[in-house]
């Protein structure tokens, strides 16, 4: 069984889809999706157990009485809940219009909606944008379906599993109002296996119960939850047991993606209960841990507060002997047979801070049953998202004051140079990329001279794997043979082109400034074509920059013998900032900054940074970034910043607010 999270529903033969904008969401964001199969599919579904249900659920249930379907339509941005008979009529109308264009019966079209509750669908926008719009001709195997169904999600959620003679794939959306009860978030699963409807229904219920019914974000069950499983039978009959296992994988992985993408979440929590007396006890205990707001808040603070997990188990209603219970957090035993074990809390806190998953393993010592629940931490961002989700309360006086404050900060940087290392998930996640290039465009409009330096390690890893080349490193540096170098050049050039195009889409002139910029020598024969910087040629770059262009620099250099070399992007950014006498060096990462004892340091001097590095409190991937910042500040770059590039408009928040974000590095005494 092979698993691929780079593929989704488009990988299943016979299915096509689309995602487009029809006027529900603002700013031309995709808000309408269609999934279509060329033939009738045996179809099963499960729905929310919330007593308040959206109009689409009633329509879908009615259409699915036959046990077959051929299309699913999804509207995003409006849940069509609490809209009475008019809401049901609107949902039916959409099904009829889509069916007409697909040339199928309207009863073969299922519908789901997600978004704000209590507002009628803007049919005056939707119908003109779907009527006679050529839906069938827009369907493809490469669509924006996964993005079009999202609301507060920060990333698409998809997976494809390859069985012996069949494939099964799923796509889901969900970030808030996640606490299913024999339901899910919105989830659509398709397969080319031939499976009877009754069997599909049985397997789907069982699979959902083990996956989506074991996750929690905020203890709120949505009014719109729905999971649909469609089988077109093109591949013929599948082994029932193998198909069930594949379906379990799809549901579980999608459920974990939903939990990890909880609104404002920074960590996935996996709570595993073993040695429970009954399966029910195991499930209750596991869910009680991920449901505990106190424990979720502790995880956000990287606090190994196992007492809150123990308390949650005590509140679960199950019977157990505390003298038999053992708890481990991220593989560190914190409680054994009911007694605390000596641990280094500071070290464990660092371990938690450096991980995207918090594992809680609980042995109840009471039986043989096991269950795992999934949740996420509770951050400040969750409150922010949900306090402003529907009504954006506007105090125009406050807004004016904020703008004036930001403008005063902006004036200080107008005409100055800022070097930005663009990397991490900010390069991968679609929404983060949009925020980044919007920020750069605004900074240019305010007169800030931006230089972008990018890496591309994760993309290079993927292409190397495709080429059958094993990744090898020495002290964190990638060994770069000639084959790896050729792949790196292609990957980095592609990323550079994307950056230039994205800036152009935001009205910013940009150019590839890599050629001839960074002079290098070979760093170490054992590393192959890895370069060590000897000189930075800034003349042409500065000339173009003064004409309003944004230079985009790939992490490549050239020796005096004209040999291309692979160079660490953080090092290039630091050397460029020094050569350009930049006002600021900013390095984008996947974390909130430098964490010491579980707390993000907002301000560090060179001496403090060196001390934390030497005593092991700054480790792993953060070390080269800190080293780059130290080198820049030592050579008269006024400030260096490490910020989380996945935060909304991170560059602007860091630059133009008094609080800022991330970790600021300055000279000693500054």
Characterization of this structure:
A hairpin with an 8-residue loop joins strand 21 and strand 22. The model has no long low-confidence stretch (mean pLDDT 88). The protein has 3 domains: 2-260, L-amino peptidase D-ALA esterase/amidase (4-Layer Sandwich), CATH 3.60.70; 268-380, Ubiquitin-like (UB roll); 416-666, 3-Layer(aba) Sandwich (Carbamate kinase), CATH 3.40.1160. 36% of the residues lie in helices and 27% in strands. The strands form 6 sheets. Strands 1, 2, 3, 4, 5, 6, 7, 8 and 9 form a 9-stranded mixed β-sheet that branches. Helix 19 (606-614) runs antiparallel to helix 20. It is built from 21 helices and 31 strands. With 670 residues, the protein is α/β, with parallel strands linked by helices.
Q: Cα-atom Rg, whole angstroms?
A: 27 Å
How many DSSP E strands? 31
Number of helices: 21
Return residue spans where pLDDT drops below 50 for at least 5 consecutive residues. Answer: none
**What is the average per-residue confidence, as pLDDT, rounded to a whole number?**
88
**Helix-strand category:** alpha/beta
State the end-to-end CA separation: 57 Å
Shape category: globular
CATH fold-level label of the largest domain: L-amino peptidase D-ALA esterase/amidase
Concise overview:
The chain contains 21 helices and 31 strands.
Features:
globular, alpha/beta, Carbamate kinase, 9-stranded mixed beta sheet
Secondary structure topology:
Elements: E1 2-4, E2 15-20, E3 32-47, H1 55-63, E4 68-78, H2 84-102, E5 109-116, H3 123-130, H4 135-138, H5 145-148, E6 157-162, E7 167-173, E8 186-194, H6 197-210, E9 226-237, H7 240-260, E10 268-276, H8 279-291, H9 293-300, H10 306-314, E11 326-329, E12 332-336, E13 339-340, H11 345-353, E14 357-363, E15 369-376, H12 380-387, H13 396-413, E16 417-422, H14 430-445, E17 449-454, H15 457-466, E18 473-474, E19 477-478, H16 482-505, E20 510-512, E21 518-522, E22 531-536, H17 539-545, E23 550-554, E24 556-559, E25 564-566, H18 569-579, E26 584-589, E27 595-596, E28 599-600, E29 603-605, H19 606-614, H20 622-634, E30 639-644, H21 650-656, E31 663-666
Parallel strand pairs: 4-5, 8-9, 10-14, 16-17, 16-26, 17-23, 20-23, 21-24, 26-30, 29-31
Antiparallel strand pairs: 1-6, 2-3, 3-4, 3-9, 6-7, 7-8, 10-15, 11-12, 11-14, 12-13, 18-19, 21-22, 24-25, 27-28, 30-31
